[in-house]
Amino acid sequence: MTTTDLGMPVKYYQVGSWAVGNRLLDPERRSGQSRLDRSNALTSGHRACRGCGEALGARYVLDAAMRATGGRMVTVNATGCLEVFSTPYPETSWRVPWLHSLFGNAPAVASGVAAGLRALGRDDVRVVAQGGDGGTVDIGMGALSGMFERDDDVLYVCYDNGGYMNTGVQRSGATPPAARTATTQVVGPEPGNVFGQGKDMARIAIAHDVRYVATASIADLRDLEEKVTRAMSFHGARYLHVLVPCPLGWGTESAATVRTARLAVESGFFPVIEAVEGEVTSVRRIRRRVPVEDYLVDQGRFAHLFKPVRRQEVIDHLQAIADRNIARYGLVEPVAALPSSAPPAPTAPPAPPVRPEVP
Amino acid sequence: MDRSFATTLAVGSSLANRTGAWRTERPEYVHRIAPCGTACPAFEDPQAWLYAAEAGEYETAWRTLVERNPFPAVMGRVCYHPCQTACNRSFLDEAVGINAVERFLGDLALEQGWVLPEAGEPTGRRVLVVGAGPAGLSAAYHLRRLGHEVTVRDGGHEPGGMMRYGIPTYRLPRDVLDGEVARIVATGVRIETDTPVTDAEAALAEGWDAVFLAVGAQLGRRAYVPAGEAARILDAVTLLHDVAEGARPVLGRRVLVYGGGNTAVDAARTARRLGATESVIVYRRTRDRMPAHDDEVAQALDEGIQVRWLSTVAHADAGVVRVERMELDESGFPQPTGELEDLEADTLVLAVGQEADLALVAGVPGVEVVDGVVQVDGNLMTGRPGLFAGGDATPTERSVTVGIGHGARAARAIDAYLGGPGVTPTTSPVAPNARPTATVVTYDLLNPWYYADAPHAVRPRLETARRTSGFEEVVQGLTTDTALFEARRCLSCGSCFECDNCYGVCPDDAVIKLGPGGRYEIDLDYCKGCGLCAAECPAGAIEMVAEPT
């Protein structure tokens, strides 16, 4: 994916576009997070755990949205970790207009904010709703589906840490199979979360044929920022699903949050894709493929797959999920051939283009 | 109207909550030592000058480089680059072509006429350097920078020592050598050629405050080879010396070179260029045990040089050399087998080692010569106070790079001996006698994910047909584009290069970016000590340090 053109002019940079910034790159072409004047929509003093992936993801997303909208936006926040750690009475860490809502009604509140703004003739102010995976794929899913169906002008962002972490790490519809949570304990013949349940919210959103759906992770900042910017270029219902590892719930070192997200993507366990109006239009290809075991092995929630005895069949089952993602989206082929039951829309490119790299 | 609490809440009021109190470890920006720098016998710090070169600031890069080594254009051609052997990038794809970038900088400096830093404030001290080779000239350069008056005496007709008389022009063109030597002379070094020093004690008696012996190992070792009277036998050092002086000795069509070092390879390649259609190296052991550098051997093989592995010369006579096949015993030592073979050969060239001519220290009180080399202490001083020695004439690996490093070390030691601070006028200490003790960055301290993929830029080579017909330079330089590309392959091991990763990945917005060149600070009021900045630092330039309990 990296341009290493040896011809004129030199297009190669020490860290290319993988790092946050790059002193050799034109400032305009560095990531938004490298800027001295970034919004810091979620500022210091919040009470998220050490190494919180969600706090990082929220700042990445909202800073990019602030830049895309020139700061003219409203945020609606579902109850969850993100709300609890950012707004304990009497403080707030937010530096964006921000509305509290209930656990399950953030999409509905956001729809209402969008309707209200429209009624006031304020088409210059954009709406971003955000919540965790519990509030999104479980409790708020009905409201979210309605928001999609009505094509309300809202970008809904789900920060997926795979469980109800705020209340003590209970299982959600986004918890991966075999993972240990407070409600899927390591007991019985098939310990941890069950296989065959759970929801792939990005695919559910795509099935609504909404304007724009994307997945991303905190391990690829450039990709995430581009997707937020792209999402804000559309009007209507949009959905962004961001993988945000949780050191507390996943049993990882606080310093390993970004690495864990990277392994989720590089193993194929978490596919990073983009879809416009119901069609997958691009995928972020795996750069250095790793077996899914590399992703699992340092997570406490999967420790029972390796100790006291190795449960190879469970590891194989999880590998099969990654392999299926890789096959479904063409995550490793040099030229992706997307399996598609429906004929591609006339405007859709024959194969999803690889995300253009800042050279 | 009373407004509700939520609408009066100040933006970002959580700043009142100093989460830094949670911390058990704090990140600290550190400068660790890159492996290339510890590997360099000439005390260069390639990471430091590559940093400037990456940004296209070539003059800054060159100036950083010549702080340590005044011969980048020579080094970029003849150094066997232990820096590249140590380079962490080899674990990622291939080592950075440090040597090629060094040559590019060296050539650019000659082309642009960049001058070396001026001599230091005069100290009134006078130092005599014996030998105008790499060690002697390097010492002279550093001594001038320390403000001493320096005279270099050399028995040769022109300065350069082995760089001129030992290394063939196809590896080191003379205009390059002349240019870099002239630049040293321009700092005020007096060079007296055709002036051999035959008595070190007498030289000391002339009133020099210190004398540095850098006489090299100029004599070809004469191995005993049973030979008929009509056999034509030369030693490689003499052959290379004569060719360097412009002679074109007649060697015949078939030349046998006996030996396995770089000199043997140079002699064989020179013979080829002098018109030998068959140039054969005879070596006792196998290729993996050959002391000659692999790249030189590969280039020689490309040029049609043949090698008889596991062979010794048993007897030489007119037109024929008898070789004996050897076998390696369990300890890897070659043992004779008694199997003999006659090879046609018009000339036999011996390249079985070199020795220093140390007649000049014979009888000097306190100077000890063991195994043909002068014994020195950690400061390169001999047993005779004020008499220093370095380079090939002392116990060391023999290479131009080592010689240059010895020169820098000797200059520092001589300066200290003369009462100076032992450092250059700049802030950086030149040529520390001991290796730095700071952590050397191993590959596991890096986060290689962030480095863009890039293969090594290969220096173009002269086609083989043109190589064997003359003494044109074989390895060509990098272009500006490829040099920049190669410099940017540097991983910057152990040194911040302002990639902004720490500033970006902090979930607590507790890294303060200070702007271009200013790097970063940790905001300890809010840093929770998660360690993400350290884990995601590509260069291993952040260390987590336990908070005092």
Structure, briefly:
Chain A is an alpha/beta fold and 359 residues long. Helix content of chain A is 31%, strand content 12%. In chain A, strand 1 (73-77), helix 2 (81-86) and strand 2 form a beta-alpha-beta unit.
Short key terms for the protein model shown above:
heterodimer, A: 359 residues, alpha/beta, Rossmann fold, eight-stranded mixed beta sheet, 11 helices, 31% helix, globular, B: 549 residues, Alpha-Beta Plaits, Fumarate Reductase Iron-sulfur Protein, Chain B, domain 2, FAD/NAD(P)-binding domain, five-stranded parallel beta sheet, 19 helices, 29% helix, metal-binding (chain B), FAD/NAD-binding_dom (chain B), iron-sulfur (chain B), metal ion binding (chain B), Helical_ferredxn (chain B)
Describe this structure in words.
The complex is a heterodimer of chains A (about 350) and B (about 550). The longest helix of chain A has 18 residues. By secondary structure, chain A is an alpha/beta fold. In chain A, strands 2-1-3-4-6-5-7-8 form an eight-stranded mixed sheet, with helices on both faces. Chain A has one domain: Rossmann fold (3-Layer(aba) Sandwich). Chain A is built from eleven helices and eight strands. A five-stranded parallel sheet of chain B has the order 4-3-2-5-18. Chain B has about 550 residues and is of the alpha/beta class. Chain B starts with a helix and ends with a strand. The longest helix of chain B is centred in the last third of the chain and has 18 residues. Classes of the chains: A alpha/beta (about 350), B alpha/beta (about 550). Chains A and B meet through helix 1 and helix 9 of A and helix 17, helix 18 and helix 19 of B. Chain B: This is Glutamate synthase. Chain B: Pfam families: Fer4, Fer4_20, Pyr_redox_2.
